[in-house]
Design a protein that fits this description.
Helix content: 25-40%
Number of domains: 2
CATH superfamily of the largest domain: ANL, N-terminal domain
Mean pLDDT: 91
């Protein structure tokens, strides 16, 4: 199930996207109060945005602008909105997004072809280990996508290893949709309850929310720990609520595939210019086919590297490597630039660690500081020193580290109204000046 456009030549893909872009520009100019205002303020003639190169003349859209002028992005009458969702609020207050019936159909199509990219067929059964409520788009998208594909789905929700294993035994899912670190808890429960992991019938896991690969596509520490115990295939994914689109790995595991019929993707530098081939930059997306709240050149805040060589699966589309980190979570620490995923990978090395939270804040000099709060039954000086040494070996610097009880860490990870655990608490002040540029 590979859409024809994803097997087309790069030239054909470009022409296809430019046709869709012209339709989008006309649509937002006529229906989006926010973008009509942007076009007028910057004296942009809508009909001149007729190519991917011309799109660069449109100012980028930031998360702050989407938050501050939220209702002005809506392009349809209120009574045409079928579903309301919010972002997870990782970088600030959650943002509302609205979806029409057509948007829900688009979401289902996106997830169906993304599942198919990872090898899921109508013969498979998926076990959904994430919430489908709490205004969470992803859980609904997985359900709609499985339905569109014709696959079975078991809506178990997050957590509760006992319930997850009860469902695996009862319904025999072939794929799990899961935060990969939770697989370690399933493995631990299996060992404690004499469950043979490799006779469970699970052949793969669609991994969400956490990286499982290094930038060279090799497995990271977390993935290696999972695979050392459970013989399943792990598939990396990347998505966001704002773009209503996913990048899933295929069986060759060389990056998440772009769906050109759904979004235009740019990789930009600090000056909002395209980075050189193979360089890391911020993913900026323009949604195609979205009806209620389409976005032009939306800055996701995620730092990624694009790969453009054709894939052996037959797709010629751009592929994204593992997210290097979130731009606003970039840390300048003792002369070293760090992103949280690299620090998470360091801690994944230690079996003794039961949970952790990174607190990032400014010291009295205004420079970045990092405090790692760790839950472990072994709170020895030896473990503390080993963790510090491993940080220095991998990242050249070591942050401050404190031991805490497990319930303290869990409370920090799961603040009120949170839909998923958070391992980063960024206490640095966030400027809202960008929000005033529109």
């Amino acid at each position: 199930m590979i859409p024809d456009i994803e097997k087309a030549t790069l030239g054909e893909i470009k022409l296809f996207q430019e046709k869709k872009l012209k339709e989008l520009i006309s649509y937002v100019f006529n229906n989006s109060p926010y973008y009509r205002r942007v076009f007028e303020q910057h004296q942009i003639e809508a009909e001149t945005i007729n190519s991917l190169e011309a799109l660069r003349s449109v100012p980028v859209t930031t998360k702050e602008q989407l938050q501050q002028y939220n209702d002005d992005f809506i392009c349809v009458a209120r009574n045409r909105i079928i579903d309301f969702v919010t972002t997870s609020g990782t970088l600030g207050e959650p943002v509302m997004l609205a979806l029409t019936n057509n948007d829900l159909d688009r979401l289902a199509y996106n997830e169906a072809i993304s599942f198919a990219c990872s090898g899921v067929t109508h013969e498979d059964v998926l076990q959904l280990m994430t919430t489908i409520d709490r205004r969470f788009m992803a859980g609904m998208a997985y359900f709609l996508g499985a339905r569109e594909l014709g696959a079975g789905i078991i809506r178990v929700g997050s957590g509760v290893p006992e319930l997850q294993w009860d469902s695996i035994k009862k319904f025999n899912p072939t794929y799990l949709i899961v935060v990969p670190s939770f697989l370690l808890k399933l493995i631990e429960y299996a060992y404690l309850n004499d469950i043979d992991l490799n006779k469970a019938g699970v052949k793969g896991a669609i991994c969400i929310g956490e990286p499982i690969r290094e930038q060279d596509f090799s497995y990271n520490t977390l993935a290696r720990k999972i695979l050392a115990e459970w013989d399943i295939e792990l598939f990396s994914t990347y998505a966001s609520t704002e773009m209503s689109t996913a990048f899933n790995e295929c069986k060759f595991h060389v990056g998440g595939h772009h769906h050109p019929e759904l979004i235009i993707a740019e990789i930009l530098d600090e000056a909002n210019e395209p980075v050189a081939e193979g360089e890391v930059g911020e993913l900026v997306i323009t949604t195609l086919g979205v009806e209620a709240m389409p976005l032009l050149r939306f800055k996701t805040g995620d730092m990624v590297q694009a790969h453009t060589t054709p894939c052996d699966c037959g797709r010629n589309t751009l592929r994204l490597g593992a997210v290097v980190g979130r731009k606003k979570h970039m840390i300048k620490y003792k002369g070293t630039t760090l992103y949280p995923p690299a620090m998470f990978n360091v801690l994944s090395h230690f079996e003794e660690i039961e949970g952790y939270v990174f607190e990032i804040y400014h010291n009295e000099l205004g420079t970045d500081e990092i405090l790692v709060k760790i839950a472990s039954k072994n709170q020895s000086e030896d473990l503390l020193q080993n963790i510090k040494d491993h940080f220095r070996a991998k990242l050249r610097v070591s942050p401050k580290i404190e031991f805490h009880e497990k319930d303290v860490i869990e409370a920090l990870q799961n603040p009120l109204l949170s839909r998923k655990p958070k391992n980063i608490i960024d206490k640095r002040s966030v400027s809202t000046s960008e929000a005033k540029k529109a």
